[in-house]
Amino acid sequence: AKQQCRNSYRFFEQAMNADVQLQMQLQQDLRQAIDNNELMLYYQPKFKATDGSMSGLEALIRWQSAKHGFITPDRFLPLAESSGLIVLIGNWVINEACRQMKVWSLQGHRDCSVAVNLSALQLQHTSLVDVVAATLKKHELSPSQLVLEVTESTAMHDAETSLKVLNNLSALGVAISIDDFGTGYSSLLYLKQLPANELKIDRGFITELEQGNDDEAIVQAIIALGKTLGMRIVAEGVETSEQQMLLTRLGCDILQGYLLGKPTPASASPLSNTALTS
Ligand code: C2E
Ligand code: CA
Ligand code: CA
Ligand code: CA
After folding, report:
1. Which ranges carry the EAL domain (predicted)?
2. Which of 54, 67, 108, 158 has its CA 20 to 30 A from that of 184?
3. Which residues contact 268 (CB under 8 A, 6 or more apart)?
4. How high is the ipTM of this complex?
5. What is the dihedral of CA 75, 81, 87, 89, to 10 degrees?
6. DSSP labels for 233-265?
7. pLDDT value at position 278?
8. Counting ligands in written order, which one lies closest to the CA of residue 150?
9. Whose CA is nearest to atom 46 of ligand 1?
10. CA of 60 to the centre of ligand 1 (A)
11. 264, 42 in Cβ contact below 8 A?
12. Measured between alpha carbons, how far is 128 from 36 in angstroms, rounded to an integer?
């Protein structure tokens, strides 16, 4: 039995080393990913609950690695964050999303906005404000066509700097959205201070919404809170028409989820297929 134990420990150790090596390899390759054009953005549409019209899209990063294949953000964003690479990658995302939104805007979609997710580390750099301002200028994109999504915990991380950066971003005229709302630890006092225009109810409250549990009451309370603070309410992860109907009835402004549209490359987005002529 002792021998077996030792063998399984050795096996465990080898597996650990292999994993650490893979993580290190991934991190190294991620460094090249921007230059190798391996990063791309998918776009998931958001719709107005009341009339079903499209209000905007959320940019979601993908890594199509020549070496490792298709890698989801859950796997490489933690590496990008721990290595600090997220700042470079994040700047690439902002530029690419604005460039694409300008293309759609010129095709007539001037009422649509693009949402970009921000990491905690990006909000620690006051230079983010200059990056966003310069990128909007470069693409001649209206600030009203850009939404920046931050999670509560993202904004809580060194709250003082984050708050300053968010206030300066807000002053540029871009919208600030609080993502994954209800999962973080922010106090209501802090929430009140955030210059947020939009609140996204976390998917965790939506998944079992129609099953008659506490989720409906929680969602109702979040909507009331958000509206009291003057925010637009978005529900993410809408997968069934029951959820769609209930959320609309509860007063959600915007809906997003697989039921209404999955993330796709820009070329397959509903916006690319409905060029307006105006
Ligand atoms: P998130 O911002 O909360 O984005 C929503 C995630 O849920 C996306 O996963 C999306 O594909 C997925 N989703 C959308 N609708 C549904 C639905 O109806 N059902 C289910 N089960 N899932 C749905 P994805 O694209 O894998 O992104 C995961 C997370 O990675 C994002 O969560 C966001 O936190 C982060 N992320 C993605 N792109 C970026 C980026 O460019 N920068 C940063 N900093 N983070 C990003
Ligand atoms: Ca998001
Ligand atoms: Ca979210
Ligand atoms: Ca999330």
Report:
1. 23-277
2. 54
3. none
4. 0.98
5. -10
6. EEE----SHHHHHHHHHHT-SEE-STTT---EE
7. 46
8. 2
9. 117
10. 6
11. yes
12. 24
